[in-house]
Design goal:
Elements (H helix, E strand, L loop, with lengths): L1 E3 L2 H13 L4 E6 L5 H11 L4 E6 L19 H10 L4 E3 L3 H4 L17 H5 L3 H16 L3 E5 L3 H13 L5 E5 L19 H6 L1 H15 L5 H13 L4 E10 L13 E9 L2 E8 L12
Parallel strand pairs: 1-4, 2-3, 2-5, 3-4, 5-6
Antiparallel strand pairs: 7-8, 8-9
Bound molecules: adenosine monophosphate.
The site of adenosine monophosphate has 16 residues, from helix 2 and strand 5.
């Protein structure tokens, strides 16, 4: 596996692969790899001849009071994890090579970025789409793999790719969880033992909502109330949002149906965690592949 640190060298590498008729899959990340990230890389390896994983803690997607400086950085372990997961290039650019002095472009997908995480983190998705757009141009992938854990991010990027005519197939990989149900996240490292216990309330809330739907309940307000009860029953938690939305438009739904996804963000101590899932057992369509 090669480590490449400049956009210019990265594009030169991709051009060589394209000339040799090799397909490229990209997995954008901010590092601190866990099994969720590595699963995305293995998925990418099964879908293209070459896999590029980008590792860049993107300052544009952090708000002024968020954890950019504290975000865990574990480059050596990440390099080993990527290598063992079939990655050909780890693209780890310096900030100044992606955003040189005076950089001012901003790729904004207006729709879909205002509610859920976009409501609590203004500007966050503009930072995400700007960096992902740059990565698509630098790496020139035919396939890009994202996690369904960041469900809204996947919907926003899908819209960007469609509307901007990027010729990239998007793959949404299912959420990888710890054995006890907690969705894996680089931010789980921030949790102390008590908070780690409390963090189980996110997946428990999703389960409670699903079982209510399985028993015939369809009123989203009632189902959300069940989830709220699960979260409020444990210590150290504060709900940011819990919503039931359409899986593609992210518009809130009053009645649960096969396209309904429950999305939630909860502060556990100082750490903000997210989770989501379909509410009806067998969805008509899945966001796995677009
Ligand atoms: P991050 O490094 O947190 O920006 O995540 C990089 C990619 O990994 C994103 O597409 C995330 O959605 C995905 N990802 C993070 N955690 C998980 C998880 N537990 N399961 C599946 N994908 C994940």
């Amino acid at each position: 596996m090669e480590v490449i640190t400049t956009p210019k060298e990265m594009t030169a590498w991709s051009n060589r692969q394209i000339s040799a008729n090799k397909t490229i899959a990209l997995v954008p990340t901010m590092g601190c790899f866990h099994e969720g990230h590595l699963a995305l890389m293995r998925e990418a390896a099964s879908r293209a001849d070459r896999v590029v994983t980008s590792l860049f803690v993107n300052p544009l997607q952090f708000g002024p009071n968020e954890d950019f400086d504290a975000y865990p950085r574990t480059f050596n372990e990440d390099r080993e994890g990527a290598q063992a997961s079939g990655v050909h290039v780890l693209f780890a650019p310096e900030r100044s090579t992606l955003y040189p002095e005076g950089f001012s472009c901003n790729l904004v997908v207006g729709d879909l970025t205002k509610n859920l995480c976009g409501g609590s983190r203004p500007g966050h998705f503009d930072g995400v789409t700007t960096v992902v757009g740059k990565l698509f141009n630098i790496v020139k992938p035919q396939v890009a793999v994202f996690g369904q854990k960041d469900f809204q991010q996947l919907a926003v990027i899908r819209k960007m790719v469609t509307e901007m005519n990027w010729d990239v197939t998007l793959i949404g990989h299912p959420i990888v969880r710890e054995p006890d149900g907690l969705a894996m996240s680089s931010r789980n490292k921030y949790l102390n033992p008590g908070e780690r216990m409390s963090a189980l309330c996110l997946s428990a809330a999703l389960e409670a909502a699903r079982s209510s739907v399985a028993q015939g309940e369809r009123d989203a307000e009632v189902i959300i109330e069940k989830a709220v009860e699960c979260i409020n029953a444990v210590k150290f938690t504060e709900i940011d949002y819990i919503s039931v939305v359409n899986d593609l438009t992210l518009i809130e739904q009053k009645q649960v149906c096969s396209s309904s996804v429950m999305a939630l963000a909860v502060r556990v101590g100082k750490t903000r965690l997210i989770d989501n899932g379909y509410l009806v057992a067998i969805p008509v369509r899945s966001i796995y592949e677009t």
